[in-house]
What does this fold into?
Amino acid sequence: MSYCDIIRDLAALYQDGTASESSCTAVRQHLRHCPQCRQYYRICALKETKQRGFGKINIPKQGEIMGNYEALAKRIKRRRMLTTAVCAAYVWVSVAAFSVLLFVRSRNRR
Ligand SMILES: [Zn+2]
It folds into this structure.
């Protein structure tokens, strides 16, 4: 394994920003003096940029997540109020109909 191979392996870590400071220094120094590795690094960097551009994942920010939860909470609250109102109206109509039925029956008995 040549020194160029080692630098090319480290170049991926250097590009990701995960290489140690001493590895970064070694990569930078080598790239200054080795045109083959410099060319390799440029091609890798270009591929990485293209991959990042195509494989972009849309991660919502914290505020957007909270906005979605607030909108969902509002919808749930609204639906709960609507359900309660419909149930109350149903009970009220039932009681009214039963009262009317009792009134009519008591009137007919007389
Ligand atoms: Zn090299």
